[in-house]
Amino acid sequence: MSYLRPVTAAVLCAVLSSPMPVSATEQVGQAIRIKTEVTGQSGPLTVNAAVHRDERIRTSQSGLGQFVFRDGTKLAVGWGSSVVIDKYIFDDSQSVKRLSIRAAKGTFRWISGSSKSSAYQILTPAGTIGVRGTAFDFYVGPDGTTAVVMLNGAAQFCGPGGCRQLTRRCDCVVATPNGNMTDVARVNQGVLRRLGTSDALPFLSGGQSLTGMMGGGCGLTAALQRRPEAPQRQAPSTPPPEPKPEKPREPGRPHTDKPRDHTDRPHDPDGPHKSYDHHRGDHDKGRDKADRHDKDHDRDRGERNRHR
């Protein structure tokens, strides 16, 4: 039976040297920041609390949890979220052979650690995110609609509708569980409208702030702070013309706009009203006519006397 000893030793060495999955009770990471309410498998989590493989992490509608795994990978779990640490297989003390998480709903930020990019995988109801870089945000809606926004490096999203490559900062793709998928384009406020909520990407829009997990909002912060355009108002009707200002009255000239008494009327030399001198002239003319009449009468009387 001695020949079995080398075989047994070889098998034992192979087993010990091969990557081993972590038991469900073994710590794979820890919480580094907890805000409001974040719960794990055994209850509420606190800072420095251990997280384990197969553990489901949930946050309240205002909750926020930041976690770091043993290879340095960081995961932020925003408000109203649910995620399970699906697989965690060690490669050595500084890296992992496989790390995958299953996101059921909510909003997240992922920053890769020291392991090979092929070791990471994020599962969502609409498809799988294959990590080819360092950092990205992703959101899973109540109906499984998923959005991925690239922040640094590269990533690939594959679902029933095909695959999309995200290679530039702020590249975004939105997909649904039935296979519908948008083209890759820069994230903007239209993405939030498509997702049906402005709370979908809070780490980019400024709704929630992170500690030590990159910054920059791809312009979403400014877009959300900008006030919505006011509804167009109808042009007001043309106002009536303003009355022209009155011309200043010349000195010594009576004001002609208000009625005056007869005694206030100015003297009109050409009008029917006659002055005293004019009446006196008429009186003199009458007297001259009477004198001529008397002279004519005397002349007629003289002529009659001559004929007698």
TrEMBL record:
Q: Transmembrane region positions?
A: none
Q: Where is the composition biased (Basic and acidic residues)?
A: 243-308
- Segments forming domain FecR protein: 56-155
Q: Could you tell me which residues belong to the region Disordered?
A: 226-308
Segments forming a coiled coil: none
Question: May I ask which residue range the UniProt record assigns to the signal sequence?
Answer: 1-24
Q: Which UniProt keywords apply?
A: Signal
Protein name (database record)? FecR domain-containing protein
